[in-house]
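[DERIVE STRUCTURE TOKENS]
===
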Amino acid sequence: MYAAVIYGPHDVRYEQRADPVIQAPTDAIVRTVAACVCGSDLWRYRGIADVPEPTPIGHEYVGVVEEVGRAVATVRVGDLVVGGFRTSDNTCAVCRAGMQTNCPHGTGYDGCQAELIRVQNADGTLVAAPGTPDDALIPSILALSDVMCTGWHAAISAGVTRGSTVAVVGDGAVGLCGVLASRELGAQRIIAMSRHPDRQAVARSFGATDVVVERGDEGAARVLDLTGGLGADAVLECVGTVDSVTQALQSARAGGMVGWVGVPHVREIPQQHMFWRNVGLRGGPAPVRAYLDDLLGRVLDGRIEPGKVFDLTLPLRDVAEAYAAMDERRAIKTLLTP
């Protein structure tokens, strides 16, 4: 098969690799229909995170089951499936508590920007779409493998409720999906923080009622202006830098909550914006499996279309350009077709 391998900063290659095989009775082999580049992949691409050796990359996929281990019971050969960016058994105490990402038996992947993927814990990870979904739904189903569920997790962690006011820090695919999640959870006012017209347009289509172009202290001050000096009831942090986390905390009202899902690159949390104002901070890697059934249903019945975050589609062989386009902000999110 062919797959993407990252060698170092700005060096992602399309290479031939050995086909994955069933190694445990709980495994499945999935042939990808679509994969994509994640904003978190860019940390390694930009040299912010180390790449000590050539490494297969990618953790988002939708595909068709080609083979299953003898213990797999919930998916069958031929099913169109989607799974989260971490595998889970979905039966342990942690999974039953809704934190499948932290499953003690969970695993990552040996690269999902590939033609074939070995999925461990297949029963606890994969969800099959009923019937044969229309090809037009593939981008939205793919978005469920990470960014839509991560945006949803941000909204849940921040306590978004019907009638609430929400501010979203970050206008990447996760932030935009956070806007969509907030709308679905009934927020009355959704403030998207973005300075890019193409991303602002997607945010508006997903339900944003206001757009703030300022960042940092000025951005937080603008949120306060829009909320009568109080701040937002719930704030979604979808970037992970010290500046974005600080901006999110400053944008919350007293007693508000920040849902933090941006991959953290923060050494110290600015507690001065938390303790004295009773502002909470909650979040982490999204437990995708906890949300998959609900969100897949919303995609299939047309209630949500998170696939709008994909504004560039390329063949897998052009994966280097897929990374460059996102790194240079020529694309919000790139979909790859093997």
User: Anything to note?
Assistant: The chain has two domains: 2-146+287-337, 150-283.
